[in-house]
Amino acid sequence: MGAKEKWLAGDVPAARAILQEAYAAIPNSEEIWLAAFKLEFENHEPERARMLLAKARERGGTERVWMKSAIVERELGNTDEERRLLDEGLKHFPSFFKLWLMLGQLEERLGYLEKAKSVYESGLKHCPNCVTLWLSLSNLEEKMNGLSKARAVLTMARKKNPQNPELWLAAVRAESRHGYKKEADILMAKALQECPNSGILWAASIEMVPRPQRKTKSMDALKKCDHDPHVIAAVAKLFWHDRKVDKARNWLNRAVTLAPDIGDFWALYYKFELQHGTEDNQKDVLKRCIAAEPKHGEKWQAISKAVENSHQPTEAILKKVVVALGKEESSAESSKH
């Protein structure tokens, strides 16, 4: 799109002009409204962004318009207006899970945990197959009422969504967090029976077994899913721990090549090069990561979607994820001793 090229070249007025011409020609194109909103929002013009979204809502905007409208208010710290837009949006689009999720997160941020719980529960009545809502509810239950409540939520979630690796992994991790290693192992075995080709489960199971057994476990994982980037990254970590630097680098490179959109692998690769690589290696990974513009990954999204990190460039998010990985490693080490 011409407007994006102008914007990336730093010419915001020219990008704005192209979009104005575009919506003079196609006044009802939501894509153009949203592109114009994004241009203003990313260039720190929240009032202009707000005005565009208000017009888009008047023209009967879709769920995306309501979601973006709430995001602007969240960023400006207008919690009442954010809540009003989410409530209003849900009247129009009750089966759009992201609005339920944002409303629940808003209540959680404000410390209204009971309210958040009932939002997630209402959301699940409309979207029983939304894994993210189930995970949000189980995390909240664990925070409010402890492990047994979270277990109950995750069991119900798995009943309604069989063969879902993310729900199994959440159950395994919940047991591990509370020190129930045996229960975690039993659940992992069941999980791999139900989802034998799940890369995220195999990768987690490699990390769960004692170090001497990891090589064997990784061979099993590669037999089941040899092209899965999660398994490949887990194997790369084994080489890294064994100081097999070239092999680790090759496997990390495979992971980011297979899944360039997953930021967690880029962070792992960059952290590795900071430890073992030259300055050129580090610059190369950084440059490739910026070009890939990753949007997914468990740790990546936790950081990139945090309110305080909106508008942060890829490089800044990458470095924050590397710091988070380091902290996670240190706490894992200290819990072993």
TrEMBL record:
The keyword Repeat appears for this protein: yes
Source organism, top-level taxon: Eukaryota
SUPFAM superfamilies in the cross-refs: TPR-like
UniProt GO cellular component terms: catalytic step 2 spliceosome; U4/U6 x U5 tri-snRNP complex
GO biological process, one term: positive regulation of primary miRNA processing
Keywords: Repeat
A family per Pfam: TPR_19
Entry keyword Cell membrane: no
Protein name: Uncharacterized protein
Source organism: Actinidia chinensis var. chinensis
